[in-house]
Write a structure and sequence with these properties.
Keywords: Membrane, Transmembrane, Transmembrane helix. By secondary structure, the protein is mainly α. The protein has one domain: Rhopdopsin 7-helix transmembrane proteins. It has helices spanning about 5-45, 55-85, 95-100, 105-130, 140-160, 170-205, 215-240, 245-285. It starts with 5 loop residues before the first helix and ends in an 8-residue tail after the last helix.
Length: about 290
Amino acid sequence: MVGVSILAANITEIYVQSFLYGLFFILSMISFYALSSHHQRNAGIIGPQPSIVFRRPMFLGTVLLFIVVTTHWALTFVRFFQAFIYFRSGSSPSTFFNSETELTEIIQIGFFMASLVLSDAMFVYRLWVIWSYNKSVVIFPLCSLIGLTVCAVGITFQFTQYTSAAESTYLLIAARWILSDCVFTLCTNVYCTVMISWHIWTVHKASVPLGSRHLRTVMAIFVESAALCTTWTIFYFAAYESESNLHDFVQGTWGTISGIAFMLITVRIGLGWSSKTEHNDTITQLASPRFAAR
């Protein structure tokens, strides 16, 4: 192995992941508020009950992602206690972290892969909505999402087949699943980002003469969030290919990073909803139309 030791990588993961989870938790709470308040405002105009928000795909996806990322973070601390207290009375934490046969390791990998699948699925859903539910646009990302899901199940199952702690995650039988995960999630993120940006830019060019300026900001939000996921994916790919223990650190924080990128889009656009509503209300109050007769 090259780079840092397995123990240093996992201890660093605990500190960094906890910090990232704190950011994710705050963003999640703001996302829940933004989604519910936005749909409740629309409900007051259109007519359906505000409780419908809890059945909307975006809100359900946010809740599921919050549960998955939170469980993954909690398992990190469970493994920390196992390594330093319960496993061989805490005398060999490096051996514990280096073992791929531990049940908590397998469960944590499952939740990690679930976070990637959920975040990519919601990205595809956003693409579908932005393109006015055009089915042909989402054919490619749906295929890559299905590929990611299959690989996620495959790698989790592969770890359950290990019978010895000496078996490594770098073995070819596991590497084919892991590298496929990286390729599929990269394809989904890059494709969705390009298509969303292209569509928003096209609408922006048509709406500039009418005074619309905020669409360019929306496009930047999607690009920045996707760049965060893409950068972490490439980081993991490089660490794994170099067979560095640093890949344990990247893997442990990757799911949380994906959750942060997802929540950032909701929060920043949600804040835009609020500011736009307040701005429109102010304009309405200052320049409300008056008619001479009904």
